Amino acid sequence: MKIGVVALGGCWDSGLTAVLDVLRAADAARVRVDSALPPLESVVVTAAEEPVRTAGGLLVPSGRLIADCVPGVDLDLLLVPALAAQSPSTMVDALMRQDVRAVGSQLRRWAAAGGALAAACTGTFVLAEAGLLDQRPATTTWWLRDLFQRRYPAVKLDMEHMVVRDGDLVTAGAAFAHIDLTLSLVAQVSNRLASETAGALLIDARPTPSTGTMSHYLEQHDQLVSDFEAWTRMHLHRPVTVADAALALGVTRRTLERRVRERLETSPYAFIRRLRAERAEHLRATTPLPAADIAQQVGYQDPSAIRRLRRGE
Predict the structure, then answer these.
(1) Is the pLDDT at 204 greater than 50, yes or no?
(2) Pairwise CA distance, residues 95 & 80, whole Å
């Protein structure tokens, strides 16, 4: 997954850097989880070629221009971190800035071309201002809820969840939801990888006042689903079944199917096929192994099964 992090003048320093750091941590953890997982790449993108100054005064060099990015080719998703507004009026002032309007225009072009979008905290205002949240469920930062509702009545505002996903659109509320948002994107690649990344970043898990800010992702994390993914990856070379996995994990097949469907929105069988296809593609791209050998390494005896996997059959 290739993610472009949009750097806007006056953005929260922590929002921009948290997204980049979580993605780097996830890519480092990827090798421990399964080297066949696709790399997690992040790049700073900007609307113009001039450096961007953050709210804290840090100077961010100009990155790849949004206008030059093609969905699915250069990047898979554009993520807008928070702008450092201190009041409703300064939020509106920020939205009126020429550079913010330019980004909104480029985000519309990106979305029209089929590109996925994400935003956290006040970054959701940038998407809403561009009309990209109309008639779609989304969330925003709690303290600007009233302004958001008045300004964007067409948005289906959901303040009950920290992270709201609607197809190729993901939004998150509150300043430190940048971490929740990024972990949810990592979980699209692998739930197990998101768990490993969260574990690496949460240095001290002892009960302290700081645990009140612990990631919403961890609150929603399902250990059984992570264990299912880990067990399956370890046994991809065998013709394993959902029943085998349930027995190994000490749960009923019905329980495993229900939990996987709830968390991953797919069946355990479909998830196993996805992991097989992922591993097969990795072997095809990184080794000289013939199709018959690759098929055996992902649990199939018939090489034609690999072709059917690649076609999604």
Answers:
(1) no
(2) 13
